[in-house]
Amino acid sequence: MAAVLIVEDEAIVALDLSNQIQDLGHKVVGIADNADAAVRLATQHRPDVVLMDVVIKGNRDGIEAARPIQNELGIPVIFLTAFSDTQTVDRATQVGPFGYLNKPFQIRELRAAIQLAVYKGQMEAGLRESEQWFASALRCVGDGVVASDEDGSVRFMNPAAERITGWTLAEAVGKPVSQILCFASFDMEPSRPGNEPASREFGSVMVTRSGRTIRTDESSAPIHDRWGRELGRVTAFRDVSERIRTEQSLRESEQRFRSAFDHAPTGMALVALDGKLEQVNKAFCELLGYDARKLLSTTQERLSHPEDRSLERQHLHRLFGSGLSSIQFEKRYRRADGSTIWGLVSVSLLRQWERPWRYLYQVSDLTERRRVEAELARLAHQDSLTGLANRAGLSQEAERLITLAGRSRAPQQIGVIYMDLDRFKQVNDTLGHEVGDRLLQVVADRLRTSVREGDCVARLGGDEFVLLLPEVHGEADVAAIAEKLRQQVQQPIAFEDNALLVTTSMGVSLFPRDGGDLTTLLRCADSALYEAKAEGRDSVQMFHHDMLARLQERFAVERGLRFAVERGELSLHYQAVMSIGGEQPVAAEALLRWQHPERGLLSPAAFFDIAEDSGLSLGIGSWVVRRACQDAMAWPEIGGRALAVCVNLSSRQFRSSQLVGEVASALRESGLPPHRLWLEIGEKQLQVSSGQSLAVLTALKSLGVQIVIDDFGTGYSSLAYLKRFAPMTLKIDRSVVSGIVDDPDDAAIVRAVIGIARSLKVGVVAKGVETAAQRDLLESEGCAGGQGWLYAPTRSAADFSEWLRLH
């Protein structure tokens, strides 16, 4: 059933026509008798067909009314007229009606006309809708599309074509397509035989309306009717200038990448996600010792050291899933020759269209750096002279052993032996550091070969060694090992033509009995070592807690000494040096005393060894020289003669490079004439590094001070030594003087010393003269001076000055 609008100016005819239409099964939606009403009802009801009388009321006839209804509303129109003259038919034809019925007409003619018009209208509506869809689609397409007819004239172009060419659709319609699409290198013919589309990729340069040239790719295809006749042509094209530039940039970038990849000094490999190598550079081949063909047939994992494969998979999994762009780690590679190298590996995850695509490996050879690091680590934990562990290595091993012992179900003990070589300094000073170093190396070898596998032998510095003995069975076990080591060390050591004998003192502590950490265990073992030295050296002492009390007392003494000078606790006492014949004072020896705040007045025997070991003797010795010079300037003259002052130099002070400057400064500040300052140096000190001693004595003598060799007779000085050093006076040690009356050997020594002094034209002073018999014997042998309680006791500085005024 079709909806029909009737336009007829005669009401009776219109009514009759309406009845006929309804009899045919159609619906009449309205009846109009003029053009305006017809257009209005057609717009309102949108009928399927309009039956239009040519002659109707109003200024416009049916032909004029049909134009907007059919052309604008798209509703089929069938003309009804009693006129069939040529002029009327021509006017009606221009509208393009869907039918033309001459009045009167048969009902069957009406039925056929309505059915045909409705069918044709539906077909044309579908075609228009299809064209609209097609046109809309073309407007949205980014490519330019131009349609031309069989004569090569433009019928359609979409907005993209307008944008690219610079022509609007209104301007282009009807113009030759060759005028709109100007291709410099491709002639676009208005028609082209054949059904296959012609296409050209990047093959053309289009010249736009403005004269600008752009690179395009395009395709062209003919449009045929059902009989194969060409009706026109459709040409599609796109501006590929930016694409060409991008692809050119990509090619250049790829060329740069390939050049950088191939010539990079770092090994580089492009690796598929499954681990297969797809591209390698020369440096990567040289690094692993393979040719490229061999590498491209294997995987990254097969080149890796088996122990590092799991770690590498973990790193790649993290890189793949974490969103990181790259990751870096160290791993080992197996080279073609079977050797292993270390590499610093930087892996980047390359993506394509936002999806993981390939891995880019960059590998730097770390083998040498690893070797150097290992060597540095070894050196950091190893003594360079002996090859034993150093303090850092000892600490590391002790921590490991203590941790293992703590984890053990059964109680475990660790023995700690702290040892040093007896009188090693004398070896260094007399035979030279080269011999001393060789001695340390021999001792280290003996210790290393005398202990069990798993024991640790370390050198802390100097002649100090420490041994860690895990899994020992108590004090007796460690003592037996220590005794074995002591005997092993003291075996004669051949140096050139001489055999050197060396002894060692050892202190032993036990974990966990004496401490739970290395610091405590070393402190305890050091306390035991100190006891071993105090008892005569060449022995082994086990630590006991009373030793710690003595060690703490030693530390307390050391702490007190550090501030004794500042607090004014140190002072000098003096003992006169007398002429034996006339019993007149000729000099006075300065003797150091410490007024301890708790223990009272202390002699050097109670603290000076500690000062010497800790290095405090340097500052104290410097203070003694300055104070002695100041005190001597205040002494009165005796018999018109000013007394000299004797100052003992400690071993450390005598070796100090500051000694000569400090003496010169003390003389200058006090105003004491240099010849009144006697510097006493122990005989054994001069035997140590005689070349250095001679240089120091020469410098001191240049100041004008006098040199006295103290404790003479206890060493082994030769006449050659005495001649080189040229002292002013020799002081015979009290240990020799004490036995001269009853011991012929001591008397012979005194007699010999006096004879040597006489031959060298130097003075002699005997120390420790306590009895008249000793004095008389010394006088009879020609000894010029004496010192001891027989003549004068030790006095404080103030009492000594008073004694001089009364003497």
Tell me what the structure shows.
The chain has 31 helices and 33 strands. With 807 residues, it is an alpha/beta fold. The strands form six sheets. It has an eight-stranded mixed β-barrel. Strands 7-6-11-10-9-8 form a six-stranded antiparallel β-sheet. It has a five-stranded parallel β-sheet with strand order 2-1-3-4-5, with helices on both faces. The longest helix has 34 residues.
Structural class: alpha/beta
The portion of residues forming beta strands comes to 25-35%
Give the overall shape, derived from the CA principal axes. Answer: rod-shaped
Helix percent reads 40-55%
- Let me know the largest β-sheet: 8 strands, mixed, barrel
Low-confidence stretches: 186-196, 198-202
Major sheet strand order: 24-25-27-28-29-30-31-32
The averaged pLDDT comes out at 86
The total count of strands amounts to: 33
Number of helices: 31
- Rg (CA only): 61 Å
Alpha carbon gap, first and last residue:
164 Å
List keywords for this structure.
807 residues; alpha/beta; 6-stranded antiparallel sheet; rod-shaped
Write the layout of secondary structure elements.
Elements: E1 3-7, H1 11-23, E2 27-32, H2 35-45, E3 49-53, H3 62-72, E4 77-81, H4 86-95, E5 99-102, H5 107-140, E6 144-149, E7 154-157, H6 159-165, H7 169-172, H8 177-180, E8 182-183, E9 198-207, E10 213-224, E11 230-239, H9 241-263, E12 267-272, E13 277-280, H10 282-288, H11 292-295, H12 300-303, H13 309-322, E14 326-334, E15 340-352, E16 355-365, H14 367-380, H15 391-407, E17 413-421, H16 424-431, H17 433-450, E18 456-461, E19 464-472, H18 475-489, E20 493-495, E21 498-500, E22 504-511, H19 518-534, E23 540-542, H20 545-564, E24 570-579, E25 585-596, E26 600-602, H21 608-614, H22 617-633, E27 644-648, H23 651-655, H24 659-670, E28 677-682, H25 683-687, H26 690-703, E29 706-712, H27 719-725, E30 729-732, H28 734-737, H29 744-760, E31 763-767, H30 772-781, E32 785-787, E33 795-796, H31 797-806
Parallel strand pairs: 1-2, 1-3, 3-4, 4-5, 22-23, 25-27, 27-28, 28-29, 29-30, 30-31, 31-32
Antiparallel strand pairs: 6-7, 6-11, 8-9, 9-10, 10-11, 12-13, 12-16, 14-15, 15-16, 17-19, 17-22, 18-19, 20-21, 24-25, 24-32, 24-33, 25-26
Helix pairs in contact: 2-3, 16-17, 17-18, 19-20, 22-24, 24-26
